[in-house]
Every structure is written in C-alpha cells, then in structure tokens.
Design brief:
It is a single chain. With 313 residues, the chain is an all-alpha fold. Helix content is 74%, strand content 0%. It is globular, with a radius of gyration of 19 Å.
C-alpha cells in the first residue's frame, strides 16, 4: 500500500524513466516525420497547451505583478545569457587540455549560449509551488532575447559566424507562447466560477505534456546510433554537465535567498529553474539552418547529448 502511494506521489519521475526507456526501445515512433509527428504535436500543440493551461490557471493579477518584477528578470537573464556562457568558457579553457572529445566541448559551449527553455522551467516551477508567472515571463522573454543574443555569444566565444531564422522562430514563439497564454486568460474570465468549483489538475496536465516532449526528444537522440564518440569522453562530459547543473542551481539558490535579495521563496524556485536550464529549440534551428559555418561545424548529436542532461524541453 505504501509502495502504491509512493508511486502515485512520484508518478512524474517514474514517467520520465518510462519515457526514456520507451524512446530507447523504439525511437522511430517519436522522431521527426514519425507517427507522433513531433514537428507539429510537440513544437506547436504541446507547447501551446502548456501556456494555454498556465493562462487558464493563473490570475491576471499574478501575471501583472510578475511583469513589473524587474530585479528578478534582470537576475535570471544576466545569469542565463551572460554569466552562464562566460563560466562555461572559463571551464573549457581547463578542459581543453584533457583528452575529452573537442566536439563535445564545443557542443557544451554552444549549449551554454542557448536561452532558457520555453516549457520545462514553467512546468517544474509550477510543480513545486514556485512563481509560475515569473517563470512564464522569463522563459518567453529569454527565448525572444536569445534569437539576437545567442548568435552574438557564439561569435564571441567560438568565433563562428551564425545566422538564425529570426522570422520563423519569432512567429513560432509568438503563436505557441504568447497567443495561447492570452487565450487562456480570456477563457478564464468566462469559466472562472467553474474552475474554482472543479479545480482541474492543471499541474498534472502540464507534466503529462512535458513527458511527451521528453519522450520525443530522447527518440531523436536514440535514433542517431552512429555517434562517433569514445565512451570515456561521453561519460566524463555527462558527469561534468551534472556537476555544472548542481553547482549553478546551488549558486542561484545562495544568491536569491540572501537577506537583501528581495526575492520570496517562490521567486527562488523560478530563479533556480529558469537560470540554469537551457533550450534545445534554438540550437536545433541553428543546426537545421546551417548557420554555423563549415569550419566550425557542431554535430547536432553533441548538442542533443548535452541538452538532454540539462532538461532543455
């Protein structure tokens, strides 16, 4: 009985394990062009569902309050798009003298230059009672900002010129993030009484959608069997990424919980998830557009390996 109760409580973690195992067993189902058609169901429908769900569950006052929390936004964006890539660059100066595969190191720097994730930071913040409205704003704003900042960071740290399909990414973000959020807020006004009576499981819905995103992401990873990487480099880089993730989360926790920080515990949760996670979306767009020139080509599989460890969905 206790085991069943524990499983119900930890269903999301169990779901992650099952999603990854399922992707390993049959990756062809969730790859682009496969039966699930993730290029549509995930890139558009799943992300739109998450933000519609957030718009439906959040009070307008919460969103308005989050918009004017300038100090919180500055902390998250500066940490994500300035401190994070700079710290990774310093670390790579040390790792460059090791026998780790150089493309993995370049992929690590590439991931470090990416903006925050669009959906996972919102869902994880909501799941543990954090400031969901702040997570929504910073995920969306950081993604839009990344369209311009990420290519500049790649040029600065990797000396590789790049061009991002600005129009397509901007329109996709606007249609899957901003529009569903606004529609959710509008619908909420008409069914507010019903929502208060029924209390739908918004968190469970968003978490279930995230499991689908995780599944399709790992399907893409496992569908590339010819990964020309030695086991030593792969294992070591995974250990390094996990160490970076934990270290940066601890660092953001320390800074955001100081007496003079001005952040609430809910703000701290949003800071920890939004500041330390990275998005795969822009990295994939860059790869597909061949925006990193031939002299510094980054195999997409390297980006996938590292992004999956960073929970970038």
């Amino acid at each position: 009985m206790r085991l069943l109760e524990r499983m119900r409580k930890e269903w999301f973690m169990i779901g992650i394990v099952l999603a990854i195992a399922g992707a390993k067993l049959e990756p062809s189902i969730g790859v682009n062009g496969g039966p699930l058609m993730p290029e549509i169901t995930v890139s558009y429908i799943a992300v739109a569902t998450i933000f519609f769900n957030s718009g439906l569950s959040l009070n307008t006052e919460e969103l308005t309050s989050a918009l004017v929390h300038i100090k919180l936004h500055l902390f998250i964006q500066i940490f994500t798009l300035a401190f994070f890539p700079a710290a990774i660059w310093l670390l790579l100066q040390i790792l460059s003298i090791t026998p780790i595969n150089e493309w993995l190191l370049k992929g690590l720097q590439t991931v470090g230059c990416m903006p925050p994730p669009v959906s996972s930071a919102v869902i994880l913040t909501k799941a543990v009672g954090g400031n969901e409205a702040a997570a929504i704003f910073n995920s969306a704003f950081g993604s839009f900002l990344g369209i311009v900042v990420t290519p500049l960071l790649l040029l600065l740290f990797l000396h590789s010129s790049s061009s991002v399909p600005f129009t397509s990414i901007f329109s996709q973000l606007f249609m899957t993030v901003v529009v569903p959020l606004i529609i959710g807020q509008i619908v909420q006004r008409y069914i507010k009484d019903w929502l208060e009576r029924k209390k739908p499981p918004f968190g469970a819905v968003s978490s279930s959608v995230l499991l689908m995103i995780i599944y399709t992401t790992f399907c893409d990873t496992f569908s590339n069997p010819n990964i020309d990487l030695d086991r030593f480099s792969l294992i070591l880089i995974l250990f390094i990424i996990c160490s970076i993730q934990l270290s940066f989360m601890l660092l953001t926790f320390i800074f955001s919980t100081r007496n003079n920080s001005g952040f609430t515990p809910a703000d701290t949760v949003a800071v920890m998830f939004c500041s330390t996670h990275k998005s795969l979306t822009l990295g994939s767009e860059v790869d597909e557009a061949n925006s990193i020139r031939k002299e510094v080509v980054f195999p997409q599989r390297c980006i996938y390996v590292q992004c999956c460890t960073y929970k970038q969905f």
